């Protein structure tokens, strides 16, 4: 359900989905947390999605997470660079989409790549005349992948996929 708090004048119900219900007013209004709204507003902008814009709140959030969970830095380093003692260890890498996956859905790509002991976490969609290239992490299963896209994978790096 949720939890209820009161300061004596106002009573608030906090639902498990992080929306706030202000029951102190005659017409209870559903409000989203202001910070969450700010984060969502910019995330769909092409300039942000293509990595051409930096949002200062992102570094604040990352620093807070690193303070609370210091192992995050080590985990990100392992994902990005692999183990210093084994440069061929599993990490995040990208490969061009094989022609055999052209026009397939992300769900199909995910299953085929998983059979190679790799995890596909997203793709870099190539740009068009009107849209810059952008990274799409965890896209819906029905997202179409084209041979001009690149796949982001976790696993032992390789230059191409044998598909």
From TrEMBL:
It is a multi-pass membrane protein. GO terms for cellular component: membrane. One of its GO terms (molecular function) is potassium channel activity. Keywords: Ion channel, Ion transport, Membrane, Potassium, Potassium channel, Potassium transport, Transmembrane, Transmembrane helix, Transport. It is found in: Membrane. InterPro entries: K_chnl_Slo-like. This is Uncharacterized protein. The lineage of its organism: Eukaryota, Sar, Stramenopiles, Oomycota, Saprolegniomycetes.
């Amino acid at each position: 359900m949720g939890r209820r708090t009161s300061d004596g004048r106002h009573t608030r119900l906090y639902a498990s989905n992080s929306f706030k219900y202000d029951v102190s007013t005659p017409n209870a209004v559903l409000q989203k947390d202001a910070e969450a709204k700010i984060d969502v507003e910019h995330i769909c902008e092409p300039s942000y999605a293509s990595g051409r814009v930096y949002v200062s709140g992102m570094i604040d959030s990352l620093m807070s997470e690193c303070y609370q969970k210091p192992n995050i830095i080590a985990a990100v380093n392992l994902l990005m660079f692999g183990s210093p003692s084994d440069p061929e260890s599993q990490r995040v890498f990208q490969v061009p989409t094989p022609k055999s996956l052209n026009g397939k859905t992300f769900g199909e790509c995910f299953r085929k790549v998983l059979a190679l002991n790799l995890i596909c976490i997203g793709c870099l969609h190539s740009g068009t005349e009107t849209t810059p290239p952008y990274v799409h992490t965890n896209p819906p299963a029905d997202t179409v992948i084209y041979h001009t896209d690149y796949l982001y994978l976790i696993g032992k790096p390789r230059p191409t996929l044998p598909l």
